[in-house]
Structure formats: C-alpha cells, structure tokens
Amino acid sequence: MSGMVCGIRSGRLRRITLALALTASAASVGAQDSRFVSIKGDKRALRVDGQPFLLLGIQLNNSSGFPAEMRRLAPAIRRSQANTVMAPIGWESIEPVEGRFDWSAVDGLIAEARLQQVRLVLLWFGTWKNANMSYTPAWVKRDTVRFPRVVNAEGRPIEVISPISVAGREADARAFAALMVHLKVVDRRQRTVIMVQVENEAGTLGADRDYAPAAEALFRAAVPPDMPGARPGDWTASYGERAPEAFMAYHTARYIGAVAAAGKRAYDLPLYANVWPREQPGLLRPGDSSPSGGAVSWLLPQWRALAPAIDVVGVDNYDTNAAPYMEIARAYDVSGNPLFVPETGGSMAHARHAFWTLAQPYAVGIGKFGIDTGFGIKDGKQIEEPIALDYRLLREAVPFLVPLRDAGQVRVAVEEDGMANVPLVFGDVDLVARFGDVRDGYGGPRGQGNGDLSGRVIVARAAADRFLLTGVSANLRFATRLGRAGSVQLVSVGEGHFEGGRWVRDRLVNGDETAFGLILPATGRSLMVTVQVNP
Predict the structure, then answer these.
(1) CA separation for the pair 317, 24 (Å, rounded)
(2) Maximum separation of any 2 CA atoms in the chain, in Å
(3) Is 40's pLDDT higher than 90?
C-alpha cells in the first residue's frame, strides 16, 4: 500500500518515511495494542497498550487535517495538555481519482503526532460530514446517477448521498478499507492511531427522509425483519409520525455498518460513530433540528444492532446547561456502550461538564472541538484555557484514577448557578464540595459560589483512609456519615502531582491552609489526604 502514493515529491516522501521510522522515547507513544475490553459483563472499557486510557482530546478544525497544519498548531496543542489529537481525513484527500490513493496527509499526520508525542484519532469524513456529502471526492459529486442524492418532499435532490445507494456504500467501504490497510502497514507496531471515527454526524439535513422513487417503494414496503423492535407492517404502521426518522436510521446504520465492517476486517482498531443528538431546545424535527437517520438516543439500540462493527456510539454534546448536558450524556451511557463525548466546546461550562464526563465509570473520554494558534493566548500572554486545566490535572493521573473510577470509588461535583454546595458520599465518610467564598451562617459554613462558576472537583478513594482530591475553585470538608458519631481527623495532607500514574508529593500542607477547609485554588491543585475516623 505504501507504494500507492501519487503526487508526492521524492524528497518529501523520504522525510515522511524517516519520520514514520522514528521510535518515540515517551511511553505514551510507544504502543502494543488498542481495543475495547469487556469488564463486569456488559461494561466495556478502552485499553491502550493493555492499560486504562482516558482520551483527553483536542480536535483539529475541519480543514486542518494536514501535516503542515498540525505542525503549525504544535504550540497550541502543547498548551491544550491533550493526550490525543483528533484529525479529520477527507475521502476527497486520499482518493482524488477513483482507485488511486494518496497517503501523504495520513503519513504526515502520523509522523507529526509521533514528533509531538500525542496519540492520534482519525476522523473519516466519507459519505457524511455533518449530514452532508461535502468531503466526498469530485468523481462522486459529479456522478448523480451512480451516486443518487436524497430527494426531499418537494422532489428536489439535496447534497446528501442516499443511504440506500449501494454504489455509494461500496465505494466508501473500499476507500475506508484501503485507509485501514494502510494504517496497518505504517502504524501496526507503534499504534500511534488508537481509534478511528467512521463518518461524521451521519444522517440527512434538508429532508426527513428520502422521497426518491426507489426509497419511496422501500418506505411503503414492510419493515425489514432485521430492524430491531419493529412491529409488522410498513414503516408508518410500525412507527407512526417517527417513521421517516426510523426508516433513514435503518438504512444509514446499515450503510455505516458495512463501511465499518470493511475497515475492521482490514485492521482491527477501535471504531466509533459520533452523533448529532436529537435532544435539543426548540422543535424536534428530524432533518431540520438534527440529522434524520443518525444514532439518536431512541434509535441507539437499533443502530448498534445494525452496525456491530462500531465499538461505541459517542454523542457530540455542546450544551452549556448541566441538566440537559447530563440528560444527553446519560442517554448514551448504556449497557455495552460506554459514555464518549467526541466533541464539546471550550467554555468554562464545557470544562465543568468535561470533569463530570471523565468521572463517569468506564467513560472513554472527551474531545474539545477546534483549535487555532491563539489557543491559550490572550493579549499576547499565555493563559491556561479551562479545558487545558482539566487535562493538566488528569493527564498523568489516568493510570491511578481510572481503575478507581471504574470500581465505583470516584465522586464528582461541578458548580452550577445556584448550586454551590455539593455533597459527596463514600459509605462511612461524607464530604462537601463548597464553591466560592465560604461563610458561616444558617446551615453552617457554606460556599457562596464563584463569579465565573468555575468550581469542579473529583474525589477518588484510594484506600479506606486515603483520598485524592483534584480540581479547581473549591473548598472541601470531611465529615462522618449522618447518624454516626465521631469526627474525621486529617492525618496528613500532601500537595503534589502525578507522573505516569505515580503520585509525587511536592509538600505537606497544614495549619492555616487546612484549618478552614481543603482548598483547591482557581489555578487547580491535587491533594492526597489521609484521614482517621475518631469515635
């Protein structure tokens, strides 16, 4: 496959080949394996190099999936503290002429990731990118007969390949399989690429379903027997007003399932699909407010059954309000499908929600969408963006934290407007996370809230008497459980950091710095606290 490169100058090819041959010195880049493993029955978790892995991602902008762009963004990527770069690969970039592949962008991204000592997730922009066909090659766009478009209710074709198109599915599957074969050739040993996204926010915008004659005949026919949960009869008889969305989901999932299966046969890397969620403010109109046919929550079981080569369906979640964000996330944190948020924003609210997401048992990780050279720079000075602060606190703690999280020994609290005091319960010991200035009064000492709502904290119980506290803009206090006499004494409080999962204590904290609560400042802090419960 490496010989199937067109349009690359020999000097450039030699430089890419040399970079690909580099053996990275950092343990985070040397690899053995990447896969989802089953834990406790229906629970599945991501393992990389045989170890727990938490994806702390930064996603390049849609047109930045090229080595020169990733190289230009290297300082910003470092400032992000991400352990994984998520880079788009457009079908039009690798197969500009049918059957002839150009791997220069793929090889260059892998080389650049190794040089920057980050992992790589490739985002396959094939038939769908945001429910549109914009990243398909010109030879696909120009051939409307071989690759028929979705036709809307008014009888007009729109810029979406029909999910019933056999030719589209087969062409996409061939290209995706070629990509996976190439990854196996160039990256099988180092496993810089740990996962691949199949399509992007698949479905149809601009129509609730395909009204072309061939699609119309299928819609009027009986629902196929492999559609889980369908009742006898045609689509309308089975699904009522939801029939158009269910019909498109069936064909879109089967299409993507075939593409993913072709790739998985070529190279068994973890594959995922991302979804534009249906649960959003305003009118819920498939094809308008969200793509019709995507893996929306009510159709998630059907999607997973029809596309078994997809290891996990992740939900792109940009909501800034806690309740809807968590509702959307929980809809995708279901049996056999661990929570994964491939795309979120970069605001303070998103950083709080990222902390919550990463603390959920078996969560795969999160990806902040978009990065430019100004990331982490304000008024010419370097600053720490909220999501980068999260990543800095958690990145090196992953081997220590994730096993505790998945064993049910992690609690998380995030600040919201009007919610500045959050209880955290561990069997025989309680904590309270207080956000903002703590003032005494009715109800005892209580947090008054931070003006920027920046408070967030993760607490992990490492042993019966030992707790990790990590977070931002919070003040924590231990207490015995309600109804139990006694008190909780602080035996020792160490401030420190993690190096490859190993706790490194920087200093002991005591006196005034613990007498009024265990303080996690706005710049972030990690504390290892040993306690004793006294009668």
Answers:
(1) 33
(2) 80
(3) no
CA separation for the pair 106, 192 (Å, rounded): 12
State the pairing for strand pair 410-414/421-426: unpaired
Q: What is residue 194's DSSP assignment? A: E
The CA angle 118-121-125, to the nearest 5 degrees, is 145
Whole-number Å distance between alpha carbons of 235 and 299 = 14
Question: Please, where are the H alpha helices in 38-130?
Answer: 67-72, 74-80, 91-94, 104-116
Of 59, 335, 98, the residue nearest 200 (C-alpha)? 59
Q: Please report where in the chains the tokens 């309308």 appear, as a residue.
A: 236
- Count of positions (residues) in the chain: 535
Rounded CA-CA distance 7/94 in Å is 11
Helices assigned H by DSSP within 385-452: 386-395, 398-406
What's the distance, CA 377 to chain centroid?
Answer: 24
Beta strand pairing status for 271-275 and 193-200? parallel
> Using CA atoms, how far apart are residues 257 and 254, in angstroms rounded to an integer?
5
Pairing mode of beta strands 84-90, 55-59: parallel
The alpha-carbon radius of gyration of the chain (Å, integer) is: 25
433 within 8 A of 422, measured Cβ to Cβ: yes
* Amino acid residing at 11: G
Strand partners, 377: 382
Range with the poorest average pLDDT among 42-46, 182-186, 347-351, 508-512: 42-46
- The tens digit of pLDDT for each residue in 80-102 reads 999 999 999 999 999 999 999 99
Q: How many CA atoms lie within 13 A of 385 on its CB side?
A: 26
- Write the single-letter amino acid at 55: L
3-class secondary-structure state, position 187: helix
Sheet strands (E) in 203-252: none
Please write the tens of the pLDDT for every residue from 222-271. Answer: 999 999 999 999 999 999 999 999 999 999 999 999 999 999 999 999 99
Could you tell me how far CA 108 lies from the centroid of its own chain? Answer: 23
Average pLDDT along the chain? 93
- Of the candidates 42, 57, 39, the residue with the CA atom closest to the CA atom of residue 357: 57
